[in-house]
């Protein structure tokens, strides 16, 4: 029998578990290793004055997943949504519903706050994640662009 998945808000005592999974998330997306980035994002999560929050997923007392999120304004609809920045599960437990459980909790949080949507992006080649996302959400028509800041 598999232990149930428990999702809860991150606490300062979760620092090493969160950092382990966030670092693995960054490696998955082939981002340049950077401890300063990991430290900065962790500092945002544990700072009540910052907008970034995190959930952890545990099974059998082991932290196996993270979801970093924040609220965002939606001027076109005059509403506020919940933005899922990072979703990652330990590769050894993939396929056990960890990601689905984290998304479900984010949907519950959004509903409890009266938010209009839970939204996220993923890489076009992340077919494994997209199978889950196609099951729990609706793919939008929007294409994402990034522009570099310039003076």
From TrEMBL:
CDD domains: NAT_SF. One of its GO terms (molecular function) is acyltransferase activity, transferring groups other than amino-acyl groups. Residues 5-151 form the N-acetyltransferase domain. Keywords: Acyltransferase, Transferase. Transmembrane segments: none annotated. This is GNAT family N-acetyltransferase. It comes from Gordonia asplenii. The lineage of its organism: Bacteria, Bacillati, Actinomycetota, Actinomycetes, Mycobacteriales.
């Amino acid at each position: 029998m598999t232990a149930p998945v428990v999702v809860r808000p991150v606490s300062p005592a979760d620092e090493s578990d969160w950092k382990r999974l966030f670092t693995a998330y960054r490696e998955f997306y082939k981002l340049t290793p950077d401890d300063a980035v990991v430290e900065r994002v962790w500092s945002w999560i544990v700072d009540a004055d910052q907008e970034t929050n995190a959930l952890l997923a545990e099974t059998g007392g082991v932290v196996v997943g993270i979801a970093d999120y924040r609220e965002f304004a939606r001027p076109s609809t005059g509403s506020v949504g919940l933005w899922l920045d990072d979703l990652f599960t330990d590769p050894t437990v993939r396929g056990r519903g960890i990601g689905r459980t984290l998304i479900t909790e984010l949907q519950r949080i959004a509903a409890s706050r009266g938010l209009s949507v839970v939204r996220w992006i993923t890489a076009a080649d992340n077919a494994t994640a997209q199978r889950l996302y196609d099951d729990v959400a609706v793919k939008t028509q929007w294409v994402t662009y990034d522009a570099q800041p310039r003076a």
